[in-house]
Amino acid sequence: MTDAATNALSRVPVEITISVGRAHPTVSELLSLKRDAVLPLDRGVDDPVELYAGDRLIARGHLQEVEGEADRLAVRLTEVIDPEGGT
Predict the structure, then answer these.
(1) Whose CA is closest to 18, among 44, 57, 46, 47?
(2) pLDDT at position 43
(3) In a 10 Å sphere around its CB, with 0-12 CB exposed, 13-18 middle and 19+ buried, how is residue 51 labelled?
(4) What residues of the chain score a pLDDT lower than 50?
(5) Are 49 and 58 in contact (CB under 8 A)?
(6) What pLDDT shows up at residue 87?
(7) Which sequence spans correspond to the domains of the chain?
(8) Through-space distance between the first and last CA atoms of the chain, rounded to whole angstroms
């Protein structure tokens, strides 16, 4: 790849999805969900979250507030996954 192509590619935005956990309701429970329902997840509050680019796990971390902006969330990375298969 040429330097120009690499430079152009490096500016393409990538959407990252943060996964805080999974829920496993039955179909009946899912159909009966209403506003203010609570859906338990398979993780605890202090468990790490997972960061995905597409369907590829790229990192893990912990949720925290954005410094100076109490109403916004951020992720502090604790592990970055090696794209070659290691961590």
Answers:
(1) 57
(2) 96
(3) buried
(4) none
(5) no
(6) 57
(7) 13-24+36-87
(8) 26
Residue 83 is predicted with a pLDDT of 82
DSSP percent split of the chain into helix, strand, coil, nearest 5: 15, 35, 50
Distance between CA atoms of 45 and 29, rounded to whole angstroms?
23
Q: Which residues contact 42 (CB under 8 A, 6 or more apart)?
A: 21, 22, 23, 24
Closest CA to 22 of 64, 66, 52: 52
The single-letter DSSP state of residue 68 is T
Tell me the per-residue pLDDT of 10-26, one tens digit each, with 9 for 90 and over.
Answer: 999 999 999 999 999 99
Quick one: pLDDT at residue 22?
96
H or E element in which residue 3 lies: helix 3-10
Correct CATH for 13-24+36-87 of 2.40.30.130, 3.40.718.10, 2.30.330.10, 3.30.160.70: 2.30.330.10
